[in-house]
Specification:
By secondary structure, the chain is α/β, with parallel strands linked by helices. It contains 9 helices and 11 strands. It folds into 2 domains: about 70 residues, 60s Ribosomal Protein L30, Chain: A; about 170 residues, SPOUT methyltransferase, trefoil knot domain (Alpha/beta knot, 3-Layer(aba) Sandwich).
Length: about 280
């Protein structure tokens, strides 16, 4: 099949030493990819990958309108003989299964989750402050992405997922995280692992979030090394986690609704921890 070059504006943004490579847009079906790869889309999500781990990029798809904006990315592709394709918006819709791709999609090597012990080894040592999120039963990728965005904004040091969690970093989670997924290490708990023991040995206090009958977040003095445990909407936290936690935190409100969703709750909790740490520095 002969290749057709992409439509390039009459005033090309490319210097003569770095021409865009002739490419062919995908047709009906999205190209197959390896199981160890994931499609990430959205400008901030993709550029965070390029900033943090460009060596994991396998292929780039973009709209013609993104050529100037993504010039450093495409120069990287040319230098390392990586494929990229200038495509139509409808093609990106098919590749990403959404219209919210912002004109860019990367095929990227997946990062396997860390073990809990590995995560604890890369954290600041006690008694230095450190903050972790433990997500129990959270399954919505948009909520996951929003949690990671807030976690990155407020400087959380990592997130824990249960061993049986079906939650994984999907393209949707990456997009909603707006780059946060590249800045928050994620660890998966192993079956039978003594998580509470490991966390307490590392100097952490574990706080379970509850909708009622807990300590008000705004009256609590949060310890420097803290793990905040958040449950899924509807079911909330498993009772076993609530029972083993060192403290129970609730977010006070008007009572007009039973509780916030997990992403909003995470943002409020993270923001209060950040406020208290900043106040302590002043």
């Amino acid at each position: 099949m002969s290749e057709r070059p992409p439509r390039i504006p009459s005033r090309s943004p490319w210097p003569s030493t770095l021409p865009p490579r002739p490419v062919e847009a995908p047709r009906e079906a999205a190209p197959r990819r390896n199981n160890d790869e994931i499609r990430i889309y959205g400008r901030n999500a993709c550029m965070a990958v390029f900033a943090k781990r460009p060596h994991d990029i396998r292929k780039v798809y973009l709209l013609e309108s993104r050529l100037v904006d993504l010039k450093p990315v495409l120069a990287w592709c040319v230098q390392r003989k990586l494929g990229y394709r200038v495509v139509e918006s409808a093609d990106l819709d098919k590749l990403t299964q959404t219209q919210h791709h912002e004109g860019i999609c990367f095929e990227v090597r997946r990062r396997p989750p860390l073990t809990l012990s590995t995560l604890l080894q890369i954290l600041p040592p006690p008694p230095k402050p450190a903050l972790l999120l433990w997500l129990d039963g959270v399954g919505n990728p948009h909520n996951f992405g929003a949690v990671l965005r807030s976690a990155a904004n407020f400087g959380a040091h990592g997130a824990l997922l249960p061993q049986d969690s079906a939650l994984a970093l999907s393209g949707a989670a990456y997009r909603v995280a707006e780059g946060g997924a590249e800045n928050v290490p994620i660890a998966q708990i192993a079956s039978g692992e003594d998580v509470f023991g490991a966390l307490r040995n590392a100097g952490f206090s574990v706080a379970a979030t509850v909708p009622r009958e807990g300590e008000s977040l705004y009256a609590a003095s949060l310890p420097p090394r803290l793990v905040i445990v958040l449950g899924a909407e509807g079911g909330g936290l498993r009772q076993g986690l609530i029972d083993r936690a060192d403290r129970h935190l609730m977010i006070p409100g008007s009572g007009a609704v039973e509780s916030l969703n997990v992403a909003a709750s995470a943002a409020v909790l993270l923001g209060e921890y950040y406020r208290q740490r900043e106040r302590g520095r002043s």
